Amino acid sequence: TVFRQVWDGLVAFFVLYSAFFIPFSLVFPYNVFDVSPMYEINTAQDFFWWGDMALSFRTGFEHNGHVVRDSKEIFWHYIGHPPGYGWFTVDLCANMPWEKVFENAFSKSDRKAIKLLKVLKLSKLLRLSKLLKYLNRYFKYRHMIGAAFSLILLSHLLACAWFEIEIDTYS
């Protein structure tokens, strides 16, 4: 359907945004991204991913070449069997605003503790598999696009890691 194509496009956009934003947020101070327009984009992204979780309880999935549309099977497929082994656990961990939950537990100067909480957001990068599904469905040159994206993402991650090492060395 058209809705599904638009939704898949939004998933692809927010996965790419997360892949580049999360490493930045781990390296730079926690309040750098609390300014407009980054704050609005991050808020929209949070609402989107919570909506994606809700839709995941109602969206059919493919199993052995057949689309499963039974509500109970969809529910247990998303939760996982045994419970806790599905995408629900990953999505919940990635979507939870851990910085807000533990906002008063750490002083604002305790940068290391805040970074440890932000590491939990890295589980959003597991959604790159959703991006690969999108590429497989809609793009002919998906292998070339995937290789180029992988190279750019790896370069970005290494640059952020290098910057973090530099900060820790001189602070």
Describe the protein in words.
The protein is mainly alpha-helical. The chain has helices at residues 2-27, 38-56, 71-79, 87-95, 98-101, 111-119, 128-138, 142-170; strands spanning 61-63, 66-68. The model has no long low-confidence stretch (mean pLDDT 79). Strand 1 and strand 2 form a beta hairpin. The termini are far apart. Strands 1-2 form a two-stranded antiparallel sheet. It is 68% helix and 4% strand. Helix 2 runs antiparallel to helix 4. The radius of gyration is 18 Å and the shape is globular. It has eight helices and two strands; from the N terminus they run ααββαααααα.
H and E string = HHEEHHHHHH
Number of extended strands: 2
Distance between the termini: 53 Å
Number of helices in the DSSP assignment: 8
How are the strands of the largest sheet arranged?
1-2
The secondary-structure class comes to mainly alpha
